[in-house]
Amino acid sequence: MAQKTEEGISVRVYTFVDDKDKTPDINWWQKFCLRCHQPETTPSSEPLWWGNVFPFPIFPTFRQTAQQICIIVFFLLIWGILFAEIGEPVSLNGELLSMTLLVIASYLVGWIWLKVTTLPALIGMLLTGILFQNLHLVHMTDTYRQLNQDLRKIALVIILMRAGLGLNADVLKKHYIAVLQLGLLPWLVECVAIAVMSHYLLSLPWIWGFLLGSMIASVSPAVVVPCLFRLREVGYGVAKGIPTLLLAAASIDDSVSVAVFAIILNAMFSSGSTTFNIIKVNTPRRGMGQNVTSVIPENKRGQICGPLAIVSSGFMAAYFWEKQGWPVNNNPVSNLFRILWIFFEPILFAFTGAQVTLSALDPDVISMGAICLLSCLALRVIATFLISFGCGLNSKEKLFIGLTWMAKATVQAALGPAALDLVKSGKSAGDTHANEEIYAKTILAMSVLSVVISAPAGAIFIALTGPRLLSKESQPKTIETVESIETIVQENGMSTDL
């Protein structure tokens, strides 16, 4: 830490040297604190007593503390204005205030979770929602149920649009066989396996089992890609372009998952013949897909072309923008959706977690559900190993891809509450209302369970097995100028948010 005084003002610049060739000047606890409290490189007007009372890195720097205090004061000011204008809904016991505090808390917990554990922030956000719901810190009544549902639908729109904007036509054309093999066949195997096992272990009807399977089978680049690029930084998997191949396959996997889930769900909750409903929900309608908000009205009319139109329109836009000189997933529109996702990620995962009441869960559902998930994850690893023939991969790389394909996250959180929302809105899938609510709650519990089990497991498996199963380049690509994982993803022209 360097200090200099100019005209009576203490200006400090924090610098820490952590070089293996030099004796470290900080202990393990300080190194742990540095995960959350980053060194300050910008000079600040710090009081002379600050460093003695609040030593860095145990505490944040003066400048960082001032920023945090300003954010708190700004929030209190906004709350005061809204309370004066709206009244009861934003009072201390108001529903809007409790929902807002849930989102803010989930964002902070997710950030701390990422810094401390290096596991995806979405896990911390999901657990925060569950904690708030079961400690009765958040109130979710019918008054704002539609707002809750619409916010989660908007989050799904952002996911789908970023998936479309992140698809690279050249990569898909060059490696289309490998992409289709890895993106479709393992998904199909796990989807069928989940449907069969949930029918016999969880007593779900076949149609509900396939609805669950189509959702659970989706893999998550949001978990996989950051872990892959940590390996890529030191040269693992670079020679064969494994990160790019996996990300392209995962985009196909997730697009198919969303489409099939929507087909089954809308066919279930529509009147008439199931065959007719499947044809109906795949029939385009006039004016469909003109903007990203199409997913909400189309979902109410029983159509799935809205979500498909969003993915395809994003892909077509990215294709033509690339011809105009914009890199894939690195243009003003992509940057806008990247910013929107910062706000809607905690909304999606916090509200999904807040749908889960632990006291209402059947212990048999949790135990049998865990057995079902773990068995099908193991089956998917084996299936991926056997299916990935002709992709130019050796046995170790095939095993690594199978382990990588375990991670579940965003699609499960976005689609998990969908059936329960329809049941609570009064729609019927043909069974008695009591049975439908049980089935819908089982699907929601399984979606949350899949994220809690598979997301950390996938991240850990990638970190542990990558150096052992992937070949390493002698001279990996240099990344001194890369400022974040997001920048590395942009270089490969892909999206990581599904």
UniProtKB/TrEMBL annotation:
Transmembrane segments: 66-84, 96-114, 121-139, 176-200, 206-229, 234-252, 258-279, 339-360, 366-387, 438-464
Pfam family, one: Na_H_Exchanger
Protein name according to UniProt: Cation/H+ exchanger transmembrane domain-containing protein
Location in the cell: Membrane
GO biological-process terms attached to the record: proton transmembrane transport
Keyword Transport: no
Superkingdom in the source lineage: Eukaryota
Any one cellular-component term (Gene Ontology): membrane
The species this protein was found in: Pieris macdunnoughi
Molecular function in Gene Ontology: antiporter activity
Keyword Membrane among record annotations: yes
Signal peptide location: none
Membrane topology classification: Multi-pass membrane protein
